[in-house]
Design brief:
single chain; mainly alpha; two-stranded antiparallel sheet; 2 helices
């Protein structure tokens, strides 16, 4: 598979979020975190475009609907 190198400039808080996600997910690289994030974002956008909602069920039985803005 052909790849393309991308260079990012992130503000410190965003870089810290990326570091935390890498640690929590035990990802091998920042690129892996970003690729996984893109897959999830793409799936969520697809659901929203289909008229579906993203719903989170809490451990206490509550529900929260997340509205995606794109």
């Amino acid at each position: 598979m052909k790849t393309t190198r991308v260079q990012l400039e992130l503000p410190e808080p965003s870089m810290e979020r990326l570091k935390v996600l890498k640690e929590k997910t035990e990802a091998a690289s920042y690129a892996e975190v970003i690729k996984n994030s893109l897959r999830l974002y793409e799936a969520l956008i697809g659901e929203a475009e289909s008229g579906n909602e993203v719903l989170i069920k809490t451990s206490k039985g509550g529900e929260t609907v997340y509205r995606l803005i794109f």
